């Protein structure tokens, strides 16, 4: 999760987030090189009063500054399209969870199991156990198994919401009357925090998201306890 004075992205806790971090670093390096070249060119033009007369009308130079930006855009577009397709890939999920946004809490329905659904409210500060995070902890966490693809169906009952867990690389709008789909996979156990990322009313900042990834054996025991 994010820390005070945290300037970068959160650590990747899923293969999808690793791809997003790679694309971020890839694009940032290209932007850095372009900015350095432009700054150098401007400095040379400002500090040098001499120029070659043949450089004012050179067809080869015009071809270079037309083709080079196109090649740069291609090097950015290809990894971007690959990541977009990976974000929409939901083949053969082992579990389906329906997430419903309300003002101002979340409802989780495990559609593969009968009568397994619960509401998730933020824990008030006075009820917060020692060592837990204020404004981020909930009374019921969303439990998923590790190393398994989980399909998440996201919608809302009243107004627009957005289900976002940065460390898993997930941010999907919850729209009333519409069912959006995404998938999540966590190879390692852990607890991942998120918040509603769409302004949805007075208590928008008080509907956190907590996803807990546990080994398959622990997940099966949790199912037996809550089914």
TrEMBL record:
The chain crosses the membrane at residues 27-51, 63-85. Residues 92-225 form the Cytochrome oxidase subunit II copper A binding domain. Its cofactor is Cu cation. Pfam families: COX2, COX2_TM. SUPFAM superfamilies: Cupredoxins, Cytochrome c oxidase subunit II-like, transmembrane region. It is a multi-pass membrane protein. It comes from the Eukaryota. Binds a copper A center. One of its GO terms (cellular component) is mitochondrial inner membrane. It catalyses: 4 Fe(II)-[cytochrome c] + O2 + 8 H(+)(in) = 4 Fe(III)-[cytochrome c] + 2 H2O + 4 H(+)(out). GO terms for molecular function: copper ion binding; cytochrome-c oxidase activity; oxidoreductase activity. GO terms for biological process: ATP synthesis coupled electron transport. Gene3D superfamilies: 1.10.287.90, Cupredoxins - blue copper proteins. Component of the cytochrome c oxidase, the last enzyme in the mitochondrial electron transport chain which drives oxidative phosphorylation. The respiratory chain contains 3 multisubunit complexes succinate dehydrogenase (complex II, CII), ubiquinol-cytochrome c oxidoreductase (cytochrome b-c1 complex, complex III, CIII) and cytochrome c oxidase (complex IV, CIV), that cooperate to transfer electrons derived from NADH and succinate to molecular oxygen, creating an electrochemical gradient over the inner membrane that drives transmembrane transport and the ATP synthase. Belongs to the cytochrome c oxidase subunit 2 family. This is Cytochrome c oxidase subunit 2. The gene is COX2.
């Amino acid at each position: 999760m994010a820390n005070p004075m945290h300037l970068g992205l959160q650590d990747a806790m899923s293969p999808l987030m690793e791809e997003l971090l790679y694309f971020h670093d890839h694009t940032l390096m290209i932007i850095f090189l372009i900015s350095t070249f432009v700054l150098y060119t401007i400095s040379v033009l400002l500090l040098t009063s001499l120029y070659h007369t043949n450089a004012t009308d050179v067809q080869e130079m015009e071809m270079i500054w037309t083709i080079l930006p196109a090649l740069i855009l291609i090097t950015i577009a290809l990894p971007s399209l690959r990541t977009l397709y990976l974000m929409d890939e939901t083949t053969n999920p082992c579990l389906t969870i329906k997430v419903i946004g309300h003002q101002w809490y979340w409802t989780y329905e495990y559609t593969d199991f009968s009568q397994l659904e619960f509401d998730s409210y933020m824990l008030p500060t006075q009820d917060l156990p020692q060592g837990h995070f204020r404004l981020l902890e909930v009374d019921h966490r969303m439990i998923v198994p590790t190393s398994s693809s989980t399909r998440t169906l996201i919608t809302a009952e009243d107004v627009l919401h957005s289900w976002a867990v940065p460390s898993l690389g997930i941010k999907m709008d919850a729209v009333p009357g519409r069912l959006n789909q995404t998938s999540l996979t966590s190879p390692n156990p852990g607890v991942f925090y998120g918040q509603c990322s769409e302004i949805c009313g007075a208590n928008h900042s008080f509907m956190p998201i907590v996803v807990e990834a546990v080994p398959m054996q622990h997940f099966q025991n949790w199912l037996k306890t809550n089914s």
